[in-house]
Design goal:
Blueprint (H helix, E strand, L loop, with lengths): L4 H9 L5 E7 L6 H10 L5 E4 L10 H12 L4 H8 L8 E4 L2 H4 L4 H11 L3 E3 L9 H10 L2 E6 L5 H10 L4 E4 L13 H13 L4 E4 L5 H8 L4 E4 L1 H8 L4 H18 L2
Parallel strand pairs: 1-2, 1-8, 2-3, 3-4, 4-5, 5-6, 6-7, 7-8
Helix pairs in contact: 2-12, 3-11, 6-7, 10-12
GO molecular function: tryptophan synthase activity
Catalytic activity: (1S,2R)-1-C-(indol-3-yl)glycerol 3-phosphate + L-serine = D-glyceraldehyde 3-phosphate + L-tryptophan + H2O
Function: The alpha subunit is responsible for the aldol cleavage of indoleglycerol phosphate to indole and glyceraldehyde 3-phosphate.
Length: 261
């Protein structure tokens, strides 16, 4: 795939398509790259790859369990990048990781290694906006889109800064707290989506708590699309194979498309 995450997603959004970015923890199973391919075949617009970390502070129990399984299997950053380098999914691949892994060598080396493997985006949820300058510069130098997170509690001035500095898309959180499947959509989340859409033409995607196809379609109505993580990883941990996970992504795709009509 050539071009940036933002160019790719903006072009797809321009066709009237709600955007869908499913997640998989890299290394969670020996055939995890087949899950990425199944997602792309089922209609994903990009795929988020979680780099397993021993203290994933923003992740709920499901992603923590998936990360623990991957770490127990011997998954390393270098191993993930070697596998990604052989993976041609046809859609952008975005790394999601934590600051500890980024700074083990240097920020510049880490970003360069991601880009060299074929990754096109990066999310580091525990990197504060006020301290993201070095990371943003290193990502830009490597040709990576650094995606920033926006919370419902943020002031309009802070949301404006996040929207201006984010690349690829703006990751809007449905709520404060950790990832996981949830029920109703709060008015705060809906308001966040509307406000970000007023502040930027960059794609806005909701994540955290996208628990079903119906919920995905409802959230997409307040933004440009959704990121789905825990609902997929729970199915994987319960034994779902790549084909079954692809089928679930296809059901999300149908619900999003039907909701946009």
């Amino acid at each position: 795939m050539t071009g940036s995450v933002e160019e790719f997603l903006t072009a797809r959004r321009g066709t009237g398509r709600p955007l869908l970015v499913p997640y998989v923890t890299a290394g969670v199973t020996p055939d995890w790259t087949n899950i990425v391919r199944a997602y792309a075949d089922a209609g994903a617009d990009a795929v988020e790859l979680g780099f397993p970390f021993s203290d994933p502070m923003l992740d709920g129990v499901t992603i923590q369990e998936a990360a623990g399984r991957a770490i127990a299997a011997g998954t390393t950053v270098r191993g993930i990048l070697d596998e990604v380098a052989t993976l041609d999914a046809g859609v952008p691949l975005i790394a999601m990781t934590y600051s500890n892994l980024v700074v083990q060598r240097s920020v510049a080396e880490f970003c360069a290694a991601l880009a060299a493997s074929g990754l096109r985006g990066l999310i580091v949820p525990d990197s504060p906006l006020e301290e993201a300058g070095e990371l943003a510069d290193a990502a830009a130098d490597a040709g990576l889109d650094l995606v920033l997170l926006a919370a419902p509690s943020s002031s309009r001035a802070r949301l404006r800064e996040i929207a201006e500095r984010s690349r690829g898309f703006v990751y809007a959180l449905t709520r404060m707290g950790t990832t996981g499947e949830r029920g109703e959509i709060s008015e705060g989340a809906a308001r966040l989506g509307r406000e970000l859409k007023e502040l930027t033409d960059r794609p806005v995607l909701f994540g955290f708590g996208v628990s079903s196809p119906a919920r995905a379609a409802e959230l997409a109505g307040h933004a440009d699309g959704v990121v789905v993580a825990s609902a997929l990883m729970r199915r994987l941990l319960d034994g779902a194979r790549p084909r079954e996970l692809g089928a679930y992504v296809a059901s999300l795709r149908r619900a999003l498309d039907q909701g946009a009509r």
